[in-house]
């Protein structure tokens, strides 16, 4: 069995399919051949972290044991050669990872709170880990599910396969079997489709507040209760109410009646505060060029449409003076 790995290097985006039994040393050799870079470091994950290449024992580890399936490895030259401008993510990464310069501003704890004196407490932001399961963790915590990623991914996959007429290839963008296979993997992010399904499964309205626009996207109609999550471009967090900032998260209030407009407005006030602090990642405004044919577009949505039409998947960001 092979491990699919994407490479982001000075010469653009590419893909490697590496045998699980191959060693890390074999992977280094393949990266060198693919990129033409003689000496380099490798970074992966979000936020980016280095892959240890300096230990002989580490270099003998099988690739299958490194948890790199579906990862993007960033190749950082070490020989002094000039690096090309960092290419924009492929469409497969469009809602997964962005270069670190698109990372949202980190905020201090006292900046993630708005007082709610009428109810004697505070609306707070509960920040989720950057582990590719932030949406599942944000929602799962709101409804009281511990360690929700695996469970929710499986439930979503079962729902899709049991509702083939509603969730077909035209809606999912690919064969439902392939889509659900990816969704079960821990490196696949959830989005609007998954939120809509979770709303049906758990009979709850999910309000997702976009930090950049302050738009509220509602998933699920005619429900009695709602939960509220925050979307910052490439990440989801949970919004909760607490009577005292010293209380543990286990006593948070995370569900409200759907006619409780004050709760939603207070959550939007918190999002507005975070917007002023630039707690979001803008993935729509940069100009993208297709490295395969020279096509030029704007943002990941244009890139997604172009990839669907042509099959091209190598994109770079154009610098506009």
Topology pattern, helix = H, strand = E: EEHEEHEEEHHHHHEEEEEHEEHE
Report the β-strand fraction as a percent range: 15-25%
Mean pLDDT value: 82
Question: Any idea what the shape is?
Answer: globular
- The number of E-state strands comes to 15
The level of helicity is 25-40%
Low-confidence stretches: 80-105
Largest sheet: 7 strands, mixed
What's the alpha carbon Rg, rounded to whole Å? Answer: 21 Å
The number of helical elements comes to 9
Structural class: alpha+beta
Distance from N terminus to C terminus (CA atoms, Å) equals 46 Å
Pfam family, one: OTU1_UBXL
Biased composition (Basic and acidic residues): 94-109
EC number: 3.4.19.12
Subcellular location: Cytoplasm
What does this structure look like?
The protein has 321 residues and is of the alpha+beta class. 28% of the residues lie in helices and 24% in strands. It has helices spanning 24-35, 56-59, 134-142, 149-162, 169-172, 176-183, 192-202, 261-276, 299-310; strands at residues 2-9, 12-19, 40-44, 49-50, 72-77, 113-116, 121-126, 205-210, 216-219, 225-231, 236-242, 256-257, 287-290, 296-298, 315-318. The strands form three sheets. Strands 6, 7, 8, 9, 10, 11 and 12 form a seven-stranded mixed β-sheet that branches. A five-stranded mixed β-sheet has the order 2-1-5-3-4, covered by helices on one side. A hairpin with a 4-residue loop joins strand 6 (113-116) and strand 7 (121-126). The longest helix is centred in the C-terminal third of the chain and has 16 residues, at 261-276. This is Ubiquitin thioesterase OTU.
